[in-house]
Design goal:
The radius of gyration is 17 Å and the shape is globular. The protein has helices at about 30-45, 55-60, 80-85, 115-120, 125-145, and strands at about 10, 25-30, 50-55, 65, 70-75, 95-105, 110-115. The strands form 2 sheets. Strands 2-7-6-5-3 form a 5-stranded antiparallel sheet. Strands 1-4 form a two-stranded parallel sheet. The protein is built from 5 helices and 7 strands; from the N terminus they run ββαβαββαββαα. The chain is an alpha+beta fold. It has one domain (about 25-145): TATA-Binding Protein.
């Protein structure tokens, strides 16, 4: 833990151009808090459970780093976990799903998530491949709902 009192600012870099091969991103011109509220509501409307929220901004501040507003929302549902475990318990590492929400320097809010299709297809198991495709569609529905 940083024992000094001076905070070190971290400036976010530019979002990667390679990301579209394995993740999705939406950019919003709404306030950070509004994006979070809409995203939470959309996750619940998709019959998913919000399992945890991570506040990277607060965590980094504990060691003397200042970043812009940031959250990670972890979500899933027991019925999906039961299917995943029934198909291959090694795939438990792929759950829960997560949305990352960052406010960039220009005030734009970036919402991104990994596409579960590729992650679950790696197991070469038809049931997991189908679940990955289903989860990918669910993430798109959630994103379209909060994106409005």
């Amino acid at each position: 833990m940083n024992s000094g009192t001076e905070m070190r600012s971290v400036v976010y870099g530019s979002p990667s151009v390679a990301a579209p091969t394995f993740q999705w991103t939406h950019f919003e011109r709404l306030a950070f808090a509004d994006v979070l509220a809409r995203l939470r509501k959309s996750i619940e409307a998709a019959d998913m459970w919000i399992l945890h929220e991570i506040d990277p901004q607060a965590l980094l501040a504990k060691d003397g780093y200042r970043i812009g507003p940031a959250r990670q929302i972890l979500f899933f549902h027991p019925r999906l976990m039961a299917r995943l475990l029934g198909a291959d318990p090694a795939a438990v590492l792929e759950a829960p799903l997560k949305f990352a929400v960052l406010e960039l320097a220009d005030g734009t809010v970036m919402v991104s998530w990994n596409d579960p299709t590729g992650a679950l297809a790696r197991y070469q198991n038809a049931a997991l491949t189908a679940l990955g495709e289903e989860l990918s569609r669910a993430c798109q529905v959630i994103a379209e709902d909060f994106h409005g």
